[in-house]
Structure formats: structure tokens, C-alpha cells
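Weekly structure sync - notes
Attendees: PM, LS, DV (DV joined late)
Agenda: review two folding runs queued last week.

Item 1: First target. Sequence and C-alpha cells pasted below for the record.
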Amino acid sequence: MSRFKTLIVIVGLMCTAADSMRFDLTSGGTKCISEDIKTNAMSVGKYSVINPNEGFPLPDTHKITARVSSPYGNNYHTADHIESGNFAFTAAEEGDYTACFWAPDHKPPLTVTIDFDWRTGVAAKDWSKVAKKGQVEVMELELKKLYDTVTSIHEEMFYLREREEEMQELNRATNSKMATFSFLSLLVCLSVAGLQLWHLKTFFERKKLL
């Protein structure tokens, strides 16, 4: 049993895609975070500004603008002048998705601290709701997590295999082009050498040196 749980923990750590961070943003500045997401993968995120005056309303100088966009510039989340927010989407495009945050300009400059949590794939699923809805035992829940994790690994392996095949095809095409280019270069060099010999022979014949 302990080995099984250890396997679950290890595989889960290998495959969980979750970014939880805290960062500072200067007035008038911008901070962008990118996440490589595959097509049809689920992604959820939440962010909040840390109130410098706990117990009091957040000042307007600390409210931010947030935007989440796809690799092709499609907006998945936009919010202006807010202190916190969240987003969730299923990726329709493959590539680097970007979450950007802007702090309003202020004189003198201020520092805005933001907590940001971004999860994709298996890590994006709310397992507490799954357990509550299905009334499953702890072991069944762990098996569900393991199944989703293995499925994620399987999809990742196919994705990497496709990328490898694409790279091999590109290498073959490049090698073919280089071979053609080398042959043409050799042909041009031989042609130029032949023309030079012909020109020299003609020159010497005119000068009656041959």
C-alpha cells in the first residue's frame, strides 16, 4: 500500500503543471507570465493584490488590469481596475498562453504585490468536488487521480513522438536540399573552371603561344 501511494505521489509530481507565485509590480509597469499548453487541455487561474493596509479597503492606486491571451492573440480573460479575479478555459490552440498584469501609473512610484496561481492539465481539476460528488473512498479518489495522470503522460508521449517525427522530416528535407545545393555548387564550380580553361586556351592561341 505504501509503495502504491509513493508511486502516486511521484507520478503526480512529475505530471502536475501548476504555477503558484507572488511577484511585485511597479506603478506603470507590466508583468507577463507564459505557460505552454496543449490543445484541449483545461487551464484555471486566480490572482489577487496584496492589500498593504490590512483591514482597510484596497486603494485605487493598487488596482490592476489583467489579460490572458492565446498564442494567436485571442483573449480568454480581460479585467480592468480590479483587486482580484479568476479565469478558466479549455485551450483551443497549442502553444504559449500569456497572462499579463498592468499597474496604474503613479507619482511617486508604488509597488504592487500580486499572488498568482495558474494550473493546467490534471492539476486544474478540482478533486475535492469530484470526491464530494461521487462519494468515493480515498483509495478510489487516488486511483482516479492516477488514471488522469497516466492519461496525461500518455498524451504527452504521443505529443513528443509527433514532434520528433516532425523534426526528423525537417532534417530529411534539409539534408535533401543541402545535397541538391552541394551538387549544384559543384556543377557551377566545374563549369566556371571549364570556361576559364577555354578562355586561357583561346587567349594563348590568339597570341600564338600554343
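Item 2: Second target, run right after the first with the same settings.
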Amino acid sequence: MAWLFGYVDVTDSGFIAAVLSIAFNPLFWNVVARWEHKTRALSRVFGSPRAACYCLGAVILVLNCVRSHCFTEAMKSQPKLEGLNCCWAYYMGLAVLAVGTLFVITSFLALGFTGTFLGDYFGILKDAKVTSFPFSVLDNPMYWGSTAIYLGWSLMHASPAGLLLTAVVAISYTIAMLYEGPFTEEIYRQKQKEAKNK
């Protein structure tokens, strides 16, 4: 990975904007969702947990569009890697992007809108853990699918900056999973405990 730094100007303002948007998104949704779980403030403001969750989901979607735009602009402003600027790398990138898209779409279909956008933090809980595809093949397929999309996009554009930014995406999501996983498990543990006490 260190060799990529020779091809990337990490001081470029577009590259910095991409790194900041990548890091900001999971930080934002985790802070807001935990705050909501603790205070229920958004549910009160929007009149219901479902409306609040839909609003947060819409904000997350907009932030993801901004992140993708910054990522693409950072790639376009940096040089291409000649070794990747060929048909096989383009088609390999396209295949990785397609697999990532498959994971993201099927995750969304399995979880639904509120399951995808932190509904459990709003008290909108699933009856049981989702274990159907793609969760049957991969933990956190939404995050890894999104990472694969960025990796594929980077390969298609022969972009060392994109490859480096993809690593930032993977690191950001890994940190998010470390915070989200145990917290979500605790939410469902509390639900089971309450159900037993009834």
C-alpha cells in the first residue's frame, strides 16, 4: 500500500475533502443514532421513531452522494496508474463493482429501509437477526459491498488515489463496525430480556 503514496498527492484539496467526507459519514450516523437511542429526541421532533429514522436515512443518503462525488473528483484530479490503465483492469473493476452493488442492493432488500438506516437505534427492531443472502455469506455485506463498489470504481479509472481512498473507506467502516456491532447486539439483548420479563 505504501507504493501508492508515490502516485498520490495527499495534500490536494480534493483528496483531503474525500478523506474527510469518508471519515465523517459513519461518525455522523453513529453519533446521531446513539444520541437518538439515549434521548429519543429525533423521535419527539418528528412525531414518531419511524419518521425520524426516515429523515436520518435521507440525510445519510445525501451525505453518501456527497462522499461519492468527492471520491470521484479526487480520482479525476490525480494521475492514472499506467499498469492499471488497460482493458483487463477495467473489466476486473467492473466485476468488483457489480459484486459490491449486488451486496448493497440485496442487503437493503433483506433489511428494509429502517433496518438499513439504524432503525434499531430508534426502537424499530426486527423480529430476528437477518440471516438470508447476503448475510449468509458475509458479515456486514452493506459495508463490504460499498467498499467493493469504491474499489471497482478505482480500478475502472486506473486510479491510485481511488485505491488509497478505498483503503480509507475500509478502515472507516471497520471502525464503525467495531462500535455498531456490540451496541446493536446489546439493543437486541435488552429486547429479549424485556420479552422474558413479560
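Discussion on item 2: Residues 160-197 form the longest helix (38 residues).
Action: LS to circulate a short write-up before next sync.
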